[in-house]
Amino acid sequence: MSQSILVTGGAGYVGSHACKALAGAGYRPVVYDNLSRGHREAVRWGPLVEGNLHDSARLAETFRTHQIAAVMHFAAFAYVGESMTDPENYYWNNVGGTLALLAAMREAGIATIVFSSTCAIYGIPQQVPIREATAKAPLNPYGDTKLVIERMLHWYAAAYGMRYAALRYFNAAGADPDGEIGEDHEPETHLIPLVLRAALGRGNPVEMYGTDYPTRDGTAIRDYIHVSDLAEAHLRALDHLAAGGDSTALNLGTGRGHSVREVIAAVERIGGRPVPQREVARRPGDPPELVADPALALSQLGWQPRHSDLDTIIASALAWETRASRRSDR
């Protein structure tokens, strides 16, 4: 019988891709999601349990009924701007929900968790590429909630023997190469889908926030990592812990950065159509460049991004957005 892995937030973007990777590796993903921001139709590779992390009885029943062996934890609110206007909700949901999850895990005797963290814990780095030891100085409540959870995991490991992997990913992008799932946020804030929707005539002109950064073309540079490569890293982290590997915190990125102008140019080249765009002022707190040093993940997990060149990311996302456009036109 295959091991059952609880995937909190498994109806969301990265969580659903992780479920597909788990199923492909012989695990049984059990999605735990309240569907407030996830999508029922993205749950395809195992059962869905609708529930909130604060519902301790529901969590305990799920652990018991499905004989859960380990947890992948994606459930979180993740809009930076929203976290600035409503920090209380972010701490209650992200930190409070994780506390409830960890308590339920301890009660059920489950000691292994792979946590979805973020490069937002670093704030504006003093040096690029960013290593795991880089100073942590988040600029918004969203990033701070993730850092608080990482610290919680550290102390739970020390006090209770919990074993964890905190995976700090950079800019998740792209869609399932088979076209089964993809990025579907409301509202959408990520650059690549916004550029694609502008190109397809489904969205507003793309706004370039700042064209006077100290970068090669004046626009901000980010490290884009394909969502399927992120899913593979979560799977490898789970296997690392199952094999007795130490708890760890790792950057997930490619080590290569692409500017906003470069992303727009790639979409125009691959999609064969112009992208309506306009230049606007910088957003407060946006770093000029965020690029990972992924060496530690490569060495500890034997993980290598296979889908994360910019053309592959954009082609997979374009295919998904094109299908989404056709579905919405019906």
Characterization of this structure:
By secondary structure, this protein is α/β, with parallel strands linked by helices. Helices cover 41% and strands 18% of the residues. It contains 10 helices and 14 strands. The strands form 4 sheets. It has a 7-stranded parallel sheet, sandwiched between helices. It has a 3-stranded mixed sheet with strand order 12-9-14. It is globular and about 55 Å long. The model has no long low-confidence stretch (mean pLDDT 95).
Task: Give the structure's gist in a few sentences.
This protein has 330 residues and is α/β, with parallel strands linked by helices.
Task: Round the mean pLDDT to the nearest integer and report it.
Answer: 95
- Summarize the biggest pleated sheet: 7 strands, parallel
Structural class: alpha/beta
The N- to C-terminal Cα distance equals: 42 Å
Cα-atom radius of gyration: 19 Å
Instruction: Count every helix, treating DSSP H or I runs of 4 or more residues as helices.
Output: 10
Order of helices and strands: EHEEHEHHEHEEHEEEHEEHEEHH
* Oligomeric state as shown: single chain
Broad shape: globular
Low-confidence stretches: none
Helix content: 40-55%
Would you count the extended β strands for me?
14
Give the strand order, joined by hyphens, for the main sheet.
Answer: 3-2-1-4-5-6-11
Strand content: 15-25%
